[in-house]
Amino acid sequence: MPMLTSVSHLDQVAREWNINPEDVLLIALNASGARSPLTRPRMRFQLRLDSRPDTPLYLILSLGRTDSPFELDEHELRLDGEKVGEVDGIEDDDAVLGYWRGGTRMLTLNSNARSQCTGCVFCPNTLEGASDPHIKALDMSGYLGALAANSGLADLSAVETVTVCTGCFLHEHLALEHLAEVRAAMSANGCTGTLHFLSSVLTTDEGMDTAAGLGPFHLTLTAECFTERRQILKESKAKLTPQEMVAALARAKDRGITTDFTYIVGLDPIEDAVEHLRTFADVTTTFPRFQTYQAHNAFMDIYRTPGSDTIEWHLTMRRHVEELFAPTGLRPQWWQNYRSPWCFTFAGEELTGAKV
């Protein structure tokens, strides 16, 4: 049975759980993917929900899911045949060297070659073509300058964050060398903002000292899941235990580094997830990147934890995370994470900044 069977089912679930229907719809959409006449397995696009047409949302979605209650084409999104949103700007979710989030507040770089990455089972990169972006150190400053010019910016002085999200560094020292190159290129283009790194290889005291010395620094540790780690994750991630990840984030926090982590909702049983997430709360200084698990094909479906194919499971997990993080004052922002279980509300509070 699909997570949602119809718009009336959506409204019923929203009432029973006292959650706005848009958040329920977006959770189910991310978890279910969509049927589509489009031939690519994964697309990014802008969505305007009919119930909130003034708030454009960006999504990246699995297509070709013939069992999904959602259908998407170039113009609209439907739930059980009933239109629920308008679609615009569809494009392949292929590898690009750099792209913006939050207007031009945050620049994300895929600046290291990905071909050496063995990948995790939930990663969509294996579905993509042969694109393998890589920026050499000598090209970095020029690339950032060209990106600024193409975006109508004189320089990057107004950019708040530059994020390096390519997870293909085999060793800590290689990651730090690349991050130093990125910081130098940022400085050459007038950017004094935060250097943000998503990775599991930056863990040691010495590494954290070096990272803290690169100026404002934000570490997002790629935790992803807590159970079945060796079956699901590539080796460089899987070898870290939850306790070691908490210790690494504590080292970063002690040095004034902004800290959080990525976590894929739908891989762990709820009890295991909550037990471990509770230990992460004290070493996290900005809201973690909780992402709804997207299975791109039937093979990836087998990694779902039992029960997570229902909307009730996801809303239960959402409520547990709210109970853990509501007291911290940290809040999610959709523009930072298009697969979040939260878009418009968190623990009954209205969220701001949903627009991209």
How is this structure best described in words?
It is built from 11 helices and 14 strands. With 356 residues, the protein is an alpha/beta fold. The strands form 3 sheets. It has a 7-stranded mixed β-sheet. Strands 2-1-5-4-3 form a 5-stranded antiparallel β-sheet, with helices on one face. The protein starts with 6 loop residues before the first helix and ends in a 6-residue tail after the last strand. Mean pLDDT is 88; it is low at 113-118 and 125-132.
Question: Features of this protein?
Answer:
alpha/beta; 7-stranded mixed β-sheet; 32% helix; rSAM_sf; Radical SAM protein
Please tell me the CATH architecture of the domain at 95-309 by its name. Answer: Alpha-Beta Barrel
Radius of gyration: 20 Å
Return the average pLDDT rounded to an integer: 88
Mind telling me the CATH class of the domain at 95-309?
Alpha Beta
CATH superfamily of the domain at 95-309: Aldolase class I
Describe the main β-sheet briefly: 7 strands, mixed
**Number of extended strands:** 14
Regions with pLDDT < 50 over 5+ consecutive residues? 113-118, 125-132
Order of helices and strands: HHEEEEEEEHEHEHEHHHEHEHHEE
CATH level-3 fold name of the domain at 95-309: TIM Barrel
Describe the strand arrangement of the main beta sheet, using strand numbers. Answer: 6-7-8-9-10-11-12
| Count of discrete alpha- or pi-helical segments spanning 4 or more residues | 11
Could you estimate the helical fraction of the residues in percent? 25-40%
What is the molecular shape? globular
What is the terminal-to-terminal distance? 33 Å
- What portion of residues belong to β-strands? 15-25%
Q: Which class do the helix and strand fractions yield?
A: alpha/beta
Protein name: Radical SAM protein
InterPro entries: rSAM_sf
Organism: Streptomyces xiangluensis
